[in-house]
Design a protein that fits this description.
- About 40% of the residues lie in helices and about 10% in strands.
- The chain contains 19 helices and eleven strands.
- The strands form three sheets. A five-stranded antiparallel sheet has the order 4-3-2-1-5.
- Helix 13 (about 505-545) packs antiparallel against helix 16 (about 580-635).
- The chain is elongated.
- GO terms for molecular function: phosphatidylinositol binding.
- Keywords: SH3 domain.
Length: about 700
């Protein structure tokens, strides 16, 4: 059954006020601590117990009635109501799904979830209808919450404001809970799926004007966005094919994040700017004419973005596409964020993030992604940014624009699929975490192999030159005394530097040069092991993060699927089945099943890419080693071996290192932690440790600091 869109509130930034002058609002208390919502509802009041009352002449609300029992927490200024209590809604929207409500029985003012009451101002009393006592009670459930009635009037909502400095507490919360959210409401509720299932979508969110200045988007502005001319189609309509699986509307394209550079702004200070290049092949209708690219040559669009711009993209996508699983944005960094290693790691994380967005069959044609990848003008970016930030959450309207064939899934198959999917993603997460740990050990082993090859080279060179190898903890060799060393120099090297006591011995000269070549080759092999562990294997280690936590990423999809399936079974099990509710449940289930299919396709592609790139890197690595070893082997065969006796031996460049072997190397660079890893705050803790160590390390007594030991 088709539904009509419903207009909702506009969320434009007030005229004359710059978007960046407004203060960011933290979402740390979302759903868990409602003090944020209370502050938004009463900005002029404090949170003291003496200032909780709202005067009657300040605001008059709409009549409402509680649907369920809700036991609020006094410390969070929440109301406790019983099902059927009369209420007065003072402010319907105060943020994070809460409303400011006055209880009719005692006049107490507090916060109540929007889904726990319904408006009664439009109800009409029938004199002949007898209403039985309302005895239904139900504890608040994260999986079944009935939405409220439609609101009356338009209200201005606060725009989404990205944070440019970041917050420490959200990361710390994720580190404690392994990336899990503290939101008390389930994804089934917050995504708008429950409201869609129970009430449909009788109205559509009202979109703000395209331009803040004049409310229109002229032709010149539209021409500045080149990516919008590729033919993205209607970005608000999503189609599910038989499977269920998302129907591809836009061909896939590749995105590169490259060429980071440090910039400085008088407002925000220093930041890193990245070049973002989109590569895609034009379609036939756009691949002709004077501006058409040659066959096989992808069209390139390069824009420049900083990390805060990625935050804008992620925030807008989360609000406009609540029914799909989006990858998490990389964590902010506070210490060493301009070091070469971190900038490269952040570049790789951002590239993997944006590539996963572009790979999703629905997210790749989102309007905000088109704007992010195609807006080349800085002026146009600043003009259109408030529009995308002020877009209201799609909510049930997202599911109202999902179209799928009738009878596209079976309830029993859907129930079995979600259980299997949940078990599978949990198993994949544990397995990949083990793989990441083992791969880190493999990289360390390559570093140890580099040391071993280097020591073998030093030992061979020490043998043929009679120069003692300096004592080292890893060698187990002590220095020879002076007398024995002099005996070897006089008795083991002749006048041409050959490993022989006879002067003019051509055979030993040939052998000495060949063995010296072998020693130098082993040094090159050691360098290859070291470089391979630091660069090639680090890239594979970083790539494993993108497949490390599928269960956390798709937990909302699983939760929504189970809740929708429960509502579907309840709707069809009634004596008179509710066909409309069942049909809307099928829409939600088609969406979640399509997301599972998307994960399946991406999992196959991801692991195939990671495995092939790892094998290609190993093959190239061993081929380089084989090439050098074969070159060293040819030094023992004619004609190279015979040519070694034509001239005296020249000292090796590595002889000077025999007194001080290069065995101490800097530690391997490790991948930046994933958002869902257990310790994403490692860089911050390391910075605190270094700072405390600098303060307490300089002791004149030469003793180690107690604070240093603690950290």
């Amino acid at each position: 059954m088709s539904t009509l869109p419903r207009a909702t509130k506009s969320t434009l930034t007030p005229a004359g006020v710059s978007f960046f002058e407004s203060r960011p609002v933290s979402d740390f208390d979302t759903g868990f601590n409602s003090s944020t919502a209370w502050t938004q509802a009463n900005p002029s009041t404090s949170l003291s117990d003496d200032e909780l009352e709202v005067e009657d002449d300040e605001e008059t609300g709409q009549a409402a009635r509680a649907l369920y029992h809700f036991e609020g927490k006094a410390e969070f200024r929440e109301l406790t109501v019983e099902a059927g209590d009369e209420l007065e809604v003072l402010r319907e929207e105060v943020g994070d799904g809460w409303s400011l409500v006055r209880a009719g029985k005692n006049g107490e003012v507090g916060l109540l979830p929007q889904t726990y009451y319904t408006f009664t101002s439009d109800f009409m009393t029938s004199p002949t209808l007898e209403i039985p006592p309302f005895e239904r009670r139900r504890e608040p459930s994260a999986q079944s919450i009935t939405p409220r009635g439609s609101p009356k009037g338009e209200k201005q909502a606060l725009p989404i404001i990205p944070q440019h400095t970041g917050e420490w507490f959200p990361s710390f919360r994720q580190s404690l809970l392994g990336g899990k959210s503290l939101n008390r409401f389930s994804t089934f509720v917050t995504s708008g799926a429950e409201e869609w299932v129970l009430k449909g979508c009788n109205s559509e969110p009202a979109l703000p004007p395209r331009s803040v200045e004049d409310g229109t988007l002229d032709e010149e502005d539209n021409e500045s966005n080149r990516l919008s001319r590729v033919g993205m189609g209607d970005a608000d309509q999503h189609f599910v094919d038989v499977g269920p699986a998302w129907k591809t509307k836009v061909p896939p394209f590749r995105v590169l994040v490259h060429s980071p550079s440090k910039r400085t702004s008088s407002l925000s200070g220093a930041y890193t700017l990245y070049s973002v290049t989109s590569l895609f092949h034009p379609t036939s209708e756009h691949g002709t004419g004077e501006d058409a690219s040659p066959p096989g040559s992808p069209m390139r669009i390069t824009v420049h973005r900083r990390f805060s711009h990625f935050v804008v993209l992620h925030t807008a996508l989360t609000r406009r596409l609540p029914g799909i699983a989006l990858p998490p944005l990389p964590e902010k960094q506070y210490a060493g964020r301009f070091s070469d290693e971190f900038v490269e790691a952040r570049r790789g994380d951002l590239e993997r993030y944006i590539c996963r967005i572009a790979r999703h069959p629905v997210a790749r044609y989102a309007e905000v992604l088109t704007f992010f990848l195609g807006c080349e003008s800085d002026l146009e970016w600043k003009r259109q940014l408030p529009y995308h930030l002020s877009l209201p959450p799609a909510g049930p309207a997202f599911y109202a624009h999902v179209f799928h064939p009738d009878f596209n899934l079976d309830a029993e198959d859907a129930a079995d699929a979600v259980e299997r999917f949940d078990v599978h993603t949990r198993g994949v997460g544990k397995g990949v975490q083990t793989l990441r740990n083992i791969f880190g050990q493999v990289r360390e082993a390559r570093l140890e192999m580099s040391k071993a090859e280097r020591m073998l080279s030093y030992a061979l060179l020490s043998l043929i030159t009679s120069k003692p190898l300096a004592s080292a903890p890893t060698t187990g060799i002590s220095e020879l005394d002076e007398e024995e060393g002099n005996f070897k120099v006089k008795g083991m090297l002749n006048d041409e530097g050959a490993w022989c006591w006879r002067d003019g011995c051509r055979d030993c000269l040939k052998l000495t040069k060949a063995m010296q070549k072998t020693s130098e080759t082993l040094q090159n092999v050691a360098d290859l092991y070291d470089d391979h562990a630091r660069r090639t294997q680090l890239a594979t280690h970083e790539a494993l993060k993108s497949v490390a936590h599928p269960s956390s990423m798709y937990s909302g999809i699983v939760e929504t699927h189970r809740s929708a399936l429960s509502r579907y079974n309840a709707a069809v099990a009634q004596p008179s089945p509710d066909e409309e509710v069942a049909a809307r449940c099928e829409t939600v289930l088609n969406t979640t099943m399509a997301e599972m299919e998307t994960y399946h396709a991406q999992k196959v592609e991801d692991f195939r890419t990671i495995a092939t790139e790892h094998l290609d890197g190993e093959i190239a690595f061993y081929e380089q080693i084989l090439g050098r070893l074969r070159a060293a082997r040819r030094a023992y065969d004619p004609p190279q071996y015979d040519q070694g006796g034509d001239s005296p031996r020249q000292p090796s460049m590595y002889e000077r290192e025999l007194e001080n072997p290069r065995l101490t190397v800097k530690p391997l660079s490790q991948p930046c932690p994933h958002v869902y890893d257990s310790a994403p705050m490692r860089p911050v803790s390391a910075a605190i440790q270094e700072g405390v160590g600098m303060i307490f390390r300089g002791s004149t007594l030469g003793r180690s600091s107690v604070f240093g030991k603690f950290w």
